[in-house]
Each structure stands twice: as structure tokens, then as C-alpha cells.
Write a structure and sequence with these properties.
- There is one protein chain.
- By secondary structure, the protein is of the alpha/beta class.
- It contains 14 helices and 12 strands.
- The protein has 3 domains: about 55 residues, no CATH class; about 260 residues, Aspartate Aminotransferase, domain 2; about 130 residues, Aspartate Aminotransferase, domain 1, CATH 3.90.1150.
């Protein structure tokens, strides 16, 4: 195609008021088409011999058409995925302020240890006599977690936070059934500010959920819990520090009330990063709590997973812990893999959990030591309060100008009548090179913006982030709606219709239909 100046025009070029390149690349920020648009379907990047004659055994499951994968050369394949990786935001690229997610730096020492021969190449079906070192590592990690939480028992096998929630609640359900109250205690109390997985987990294993409202200060009162208790209550699921970034100051009274009513206390440990080395959950009256190793102990998170969610248990719940678990017999360690003859509720998952995550987490814990883990918590809280204080005069806080724990929470009152929403503000952060903070969560705060800097960030890093948000806030005050309404302007892709993308996702590439030009 030629434009009006007689120059070739890239198909799909859109005039945006700024200079366009022919390739649509911006120097090293390269426009990357889909791999289906790059490759050819009639060739492969390698030579494959024609198979000898054989009799297929798939029957009706045999493929009836071509596989539909594009063929590329090795350089084309490598370039495609390298370019895609350059479009990803990552903790190795910049500050990742997602509240309630603890996206902290993952030290490369962790990775080196996880790849050590004998740890990175073992197989779960090896004889136990050949993996004594791995069993000792699991036992050591379990010991650290029990010491840090003040709990006497632990299940290491759960593979993520929600999996750990299910484990803890299944132990509670087994304990209640053992008392003969399984049919009558069928309600779980869940605060309005809880993670969404909490009520989902309770419902998944057969409980009814009864909501507990938060007070105006963002915490749960012991009085509200007492009002909701009764002979039908099996447990409460509470996050501490809670999702508003605040420590539940009446947690001991809440635990006492739940226990007096015959229930158990499950604590969501997603925010353990704020209190490691400072508070032992077992001392607060907690019966079960999962620990996200992929948050608190720095192992890869999200798309860099997998995760790990060990669950610590009180003395009352210890007999009901799932199998497998490590048992020491003198100098030898063994996995107890069968629940027969015990009160265990059974097996949560195949094998032992995420071995690579155990290695990384133990490396992190041992390299920090007890004093270093405590300092990490203190620094996480300090960093969050630094952000809170530095933005308090330009962004509104739902619970007043009061100290927070490891994450700072803002609402959208300061955006009122500006024509700019929380989503607009977050999209403008992308143009500035930052991943947005957690938006619209917790649900108890309108237009919530939840920021967790973690302890990984230096003061220089925080200062730049703070000044960026202050600059954006000044643009809001100046009425510069255009800076926000179409943002992001500089990302590889502009703003999506997110509602349509969620409801009508395109999950399969379809070859475009060729439309003949009139001149043809």
C-alpha cells in the first residue's frame, strides 16, 4: 500500500498524532505479531522423517485434520519469545506495588540452591533411602515455620494459598466431626474485608458463610463476632494483618470468643510478611494458618510459580493433619504416606508439595537468620508507612491518617468530580513505567488503591515511585483529564475493553478472511 506521499504504509497503521515508523517498532521496542502470523503452516523449522507405517490406536480420538501449528526457523522462534518477554512487567524490571500480593525480590542465591544436583533432579518416586537429604530439608523448613508461628504441627504439602486454606479448613472439619458435631456446626464466619478465597473455600467444603461487618476503622470487633456466634458455628476465617493493611487489635479477644463457643480460628496467612519475627500467630489463639512461601519467603510468584502454602496447626488440630508428613526415627527420616490408623483427614495432593519452593524458602530463611527475617518485616512496614505519609496530602485514606502495616490503602474520594477514576489513574501509571497497584480491593473501600512496596525497595526506588504518583495527582488537580482518559498511550497495546475481553475472550486464532480489493 502507498500513502498520499507515495511511501509504503504498514498494514494496520493508525495515526495517533505522533510520528510512526514503517515497522511500527520504536527502536528496541518491537512490534511483535502473533506467532501464527509469522510462521507458515506448510513447513517446520526442523527436518522430520516420514514415519514408518503403523496402526493408530487412538480410535475415535485420532486427529482428523492438520495440527494447525506454524513452522518457524530457530532464529524466528527465539526472537519471537524474546520480544514477547520484553513486553512483560516483572519484579526484576521495577517496583511491583500490588497490595496483598507481596511481590518481593527473589534472590538469585535461591535459584542457585534449587538447581543443585540432588535437589533439582530428584524424583518423587525415588526410594526414601536415596532422598534423606531432601527429607531433612523439608523437616528443617517445617521446623523454622513452626518456630516463627509458635505452632506445634505443620502440613507441608499444600501447593498454594487457597490450597492451604482448604487444608486448614478440612482439618477443622475433621476435628468437629470427631467430636460428633459435624451435622450441627455448618457455619463459618468471614469478615467483609476477607480475601475472596476465604468464603469460596468455606463454601467449597460444604459450609455456609456468615459475613461479619468491619468497623469504621477497618477492623473487626470482638463484639460483632460474639453476636454472630452460636452452636452452629464451626470456625472463623480472619486475615491478620487484614486486607486493609491494619492489624486486628482485638484478635486475642476474638479467638477467645470463638473457642468458648466451640469453634476454631483459621487465619489467612497471606500477609505474614508484615509480622514475621514480631508476632507468633499461635500466641494469638490461632488454630490453623497457611503460609505463602511464594510471598513471605521470596520464592517465585504468580506466572513465575509454582507456589507453596504450608499450613501450621494448633495442638487441637495436629492429629487431623493430612498425609504425607515427615517422621524422624533416630537418624533416619521417612514419609508417612497413609492415613490408616490415624485421625488424618487424608491426602491433599500427590507426593510432598513443591520441593523447589522448599529449597528457595529455606535458602531465604537461612541467609537472613531470625534477626534478618524480623528486619524484613520491620522494613516492609516502614516502607508502606513512608509511602502512606508521603502521599497523605494528595490522596485520601479511608481510615484516616493512621499508621498501617505492610501495605498502604487509599480510596477514590480525592478523585471526586475530576472525571477520573481509579482505573484511569492506574492506567496512567503504566505510561510512567509502573505496574498498577491492586485496584478496587478490598471491596469494603470504594475505588480502593492498595499499595504494598515490600522490604525489597530502596529509599531511592520509593522516592521515585512517590514523586511519580504525586505528579499524577497534580495532573488530576489541574484537570488534565486527557492524561488519564486514554492511558496507557505508550504501552505496546492501548487500553482494552476489559469487560468485553472478560466476557467474550478470543481463545483461538482464526486465519483472517482475505477480502478482494475492488481494483482486482
Amino acid at each position: 500500500m502507498l500513502n498520499m506521499q507515495g511511501r509504503p504504509t504498514h498494514v494496520g497503521e493508525v495515526a495517533t498524532g505522533e510520528r510512526q515508523t514503517f515497522t511500527r517498532n520504536r527502536a528496541l521496542q518491537m512490534e511483535e505479531p502473533l506467532i501464527f502470523e509469522t510462521g507458515r503452516f506448510d513447513v517446520t523449522g526442523v527436518d522430520i522423517d516420514e514415519p514408518e507405517k503403523f496402526t493408530p490406536r487412538l480410535g475415535a480420538h485420532a486427529r482428523k485434520s492438520g495440527i494447525g501449528l506454524p513452522g518457524l526457523t530457530e532464529p524466528e522462534t527465539m526472537r519471537h519469545y524474546v520480544r514477547l518477554s520484553q513486553k512483560n512487567y516483572a519484579i526484576d524490571a521495577g517496583l511491583y506495588p500490588l497490595g496483598s500480593c507481596t511481590m518481593k525480590h527473589n534472590p538469585r542465591l535461591n535459584e542457585k540452591m534449587a538447581r543443585l544436583p540432588g535437589l533439582g533432579d530428584i524424583h518423587p518416586l525415588q526410594p526414601q533411602s536415596t532422598v534423606q537429604g531432601a527429607l531433612e530439608l523439608i523437616e528443617t523448613m517445617a521446623h523454622w515455620l513452626m518456630v516463627l508461628t509458635g505452632m506445634p504441627a505443620i502440613a507441608m504439602s499444600p501447593k498454594a494459598g487457597a490450597h492451604g486454606e482448604a487444608c486448614g479448613m478440612m482439618a477443622i472439619k475433621a476435628a468437629i466431626a470427631a467430636r460428633g458435631e459435624g451435622a450441627t456446626r455448618n457455619v463459618v464466619l468471614v469478615p467483609d474485608s476477607a480475601h475472596g478465597t476465604n468464603p469460596a473455600t468455606a463454601a467449597l467444603i460444604g459450609y455456609h458463610v456468615r459475613a461479619i461487618p468491619a468497623r469504621e476503622d477497618g477492623t473487626v470487633s470482638a463484639e460483632a463476632v460474639r453476636d454472630a456466634l452460636g452452636p452452629d458455628v464451626a470456625a472463623i476465617m480472619l486475615t491478620n494483618p487484614n486486607t486493609c493493611g491494619l492489624f486486628e487489635k482485638e484478635i486475642v479477644e476474638i479467638a477467645r470468643a470463638v473457642h468458648e463457643a466451640g469453634g476454631y480460628f483459621y487465619c489467612d496467612g497471606a500477609n505474614f510478611n508484615a509480622i514475621v519475627g514480631k508476632v507468633r500467630p499461635g500466641d494469638l489463639g490461632i488454630d490453623a494458618m497457611h503460609i505463602n512461601l511464594h510471598k513471605t519467603f521470596s520464592t517465585p510468584h504468580g506466572g513465575g510459580g509454582p507456589g507453596a502454602g504450608p499450613v501450621v496447626l494448633s495442638q487441637a488440630l495436629a492429629p487431623f493433619a493430612p498425609v504425607p508428613f515427615v517422621r524422624r526415627d533416630g537418624e533416619k527420616l521417612a514419609f508417612v504416606e497413609h492415613a490408616e490408623g490415624t485421625q488424618s483427614f487424608g491426602r491433599m495432593t500427590a507426593f510432598h508439595g513443591q520441593m523447589g519452593m522448599f529449597v528457595r524458602a529455606l535458602t531465604y530463611a537461612m541467609s537472613h537468620g531470625s534477626d534478618g527475617l524480623r528486619q524484613a518485616s520491620e522494613d516492609a512496614v516502614l516502607n508502606a508507612n513512608y509511602i502512606r505519609a508521603c502521599l497523605a496530602d494528595v490522596m485520601s485514606q479511608p481510615f484516616g491518617d493512621r499508621p498501617c502495616m505492610h501495605e498502604a490503602l487509599f480510596d477514590d474520594r480525592w478523585l471526586k468530580d475530576s472525571g477520573i477514576t481509579t482505573l484511569d489513574f492506574a492506567k496512567a501509571m503504566i505510561d510512567e513505567g509502573y505496574h498498577p497497584m491492586t485496584m478496587y480491593f478490598p471491596l469494603v473501600v470504594h475505588g480502593a488503591m492498595l499499595i504494598e512496596p515490600t522490604e525489597s525497595e530502596s529509599k531511592a526506588s520509593l522516592d521515585l515511585f512517590i514523586m511519580t504518583l504525586r505528579d499524577l495527582a497534580m495532573s488530576v488537580r489541574d484537570g488534565d483529564v486527557a492524561r488519564f482518559s486514554g492511558a496507557p498511550y505508550f504501552a505496546p497495546r492501548r487500553r482494552l475493553d476489559e469487560t468485553r475481553a472478560a466476557r467474550q475472550p478470543v481463545l483461538k486464532w482464526v486465519k483472517p478472511v482475505t477480502v478482494a480489493e475492488a481494483a482486482e
